[in-house]
Amino acid sequence: MTIHPQQETLHFQTEVKQLLHLVVHSLYSNKEIFLRELISNASDAADKLRFEALSDSALYETDAELKVFLSVDEKARTITVSDNGIGMSRDEVIENLGTIAKSGTRDFLAQLTGDQKKDAHLIGQFGVGFYSAFIIADKVTVTTRRAGLTKEHGVRWESDGAGDYTIANTEKTTRGTDIILHLKEGEDDFLNNWRLRTIITKYSDHINLPIFMHALSEKKEENKPEWEMVNRATALWTLPKNSITDEQYKEHYKHLAHDFEDPMLWAHNQVEGGNLDYISLLYIPSHAPLDLWQRERQHGLKLYVQRVFIMDQVEQFIPFYLRFVRGIVDTNALPLNISREILQDNPVITKLRAALVKRILDMLDKLASDDKEKYAKFFNQFGNVLKEGPAEDFSNRERIAKLLRFASTHTNTKEPTVSLEDYMKRMKPSQQKIYYITAENFNTAKSSPHLEIFRKKSIEVLLLHDRVDEWLMSHLTEFEGKSFQSVAKGDVSLNDITSEEGKKEQEKTAKKEELNSEFDGLIKHMKEVLGDLVKEVRLSNRLTDSPVCLVTDEHDMGSQLQRILKAAGQEIPESKPILELNPEHTLILKLKNEADKERFAEWAHILFDQAVLSEGGQLKDPALFVGRMNRLLLASGS
User: Fold this and answer.
1) How close are the terminal C-alpha atoms of the chain, in Å?
2) What is the pTM of this model?
3) pLDDT tens per residue across span 344-386
4) What is the topology classification, in CATH, of domain 405-637?
5) pLDDT in tens, 231-246
6) Domain 8-234, CATH among 2.40.110.20, 3.40.50.720, 3.30.450.40, 3.30.565.10
7) Which of 70, 150, 261, 296 has the fewest CB atoms within 10 Å distance of its CB?
8) Spatial distance between the Cα atoms of 178 and 150, rounded to a whole number of angstroms
């Protein structure tokens, strides 16, 4: 039948144009990765066909042996990469080659600096896949047909990578995809057969798909070129560990994750016995992907059953707080026809998940103990994700807590280097609690008035300043028998900590009733003036230098968590703060003796606003605060 081309010229999505420009101008120093990326895509296409063919074997048509062909035409100066995988329909071509559906794209582009070296690093994190073809080609032609469609449904796509592309219908008798690269001037080195074989050996030797090139024998007939397999095509994870080099593990990771950088570490294990035989190859990346915080981002491990690819990104194997882990699981304990729905309730998956989580936590434990500097780099990239663990994985809460790192008043630096075990070694002899404070940022936490009494008594406080920390502390209530205590919540008492300062504190507490009686009038008057702004006004045990601070009642939601939830548009129950006064501060003593009711009210509101600001909060009416300050300054100067 006659094919109607239905040719049209379409514009690349804006983000694609930007990415194409960056690929061409920033990745010139590592041009050979184009072949790794295109072969990885071909491997993915083969995996997808294997999976869909489990329920519809007719998709194989008359060719069930999946493979990749790489050919060179020196006269035309082209390289062709062909596969007989799943292929693409017209709509899929537009979606996959004309747009970037990847979440986090805009965030990625916003991070680009214009510095080619730095941008190349970022592009490597993002992954460029198909677009890497334009590193060496000034025109790329793609011919494809999706498995299951008739030959009349072939699609031809072509672009010079500038801003537009053409797409048309064409006849294609075989399923799969052919990518033709028309080389730029000066790139003829890639027309060399040996050069291409070397690249394949370096990057794609162990992908589970045979790659064929024309044989180098001179005896081949002119129109019947002989093909020979140029890679091992043996799944890397099935080989003995002692036969695999570090370089092979690293290249396998790059193929698996479409990453340009080496992994930070990996673990390759084979488990046999009982009813759970499996091989796992798990990688910890050296950097966080740009879409790590996108909730819709897919994550998980590749699943193989008896060496047959079943599905990608199986989320059931690892909890969400370990979503940065990449790798594969190959097992004989699952049926070949398993689906994502069946995975939900399969008892084997539960056992595999527990075993894999243990393996990952073991990897991190070993890294933390063997190489503190490398672990610090890991935590800098993935620490905030790991902090989600205690809420999600109760059974491993203690193990996860050991892996967490924090800033603290001991180091007084922003870097999270203090473990909970480090903290406990420095606790006072009778100290029963692990003290912490949460704040919007490090400086707010470090300078909080709530820390004054703790600094005076040399009691260490963890400084938590990441948004996830409030969520973490609401689920991490104790560690090795010691409970956590926010220094900004409840009534802090340090009487149980043995020291000379502790004895002085006991003496001071003995006078508390006397002080309360002395300041009773001031407390009542301030509560009347501030009204519904505060739940209570009371004298403080925690202040030594500041006049006032705000604290939260023991069972109320912390102020930092309130701010986070409000910013997210969530309704929260009304919770009023407690205003604490420092009875030894000059301003409080002055206010105690203030007879002018109007001036007393001005001072009361200013002190309250100061307390709000000192904990990182925002004033409801900044102009009113400034007006009050100005009036009091003028009055004091007259």
Assistant:
1) 100
2) 0.76
3) 777 888 899 999 999 999 999 999 999 999 999 999 999 999 9
4) Four Helix Bundle (Hemerythrin (Met), subunit A) (1.20.120)
5) 888 888 989 999 999 9
6) 3.30.565.10
7) 296
8) 17
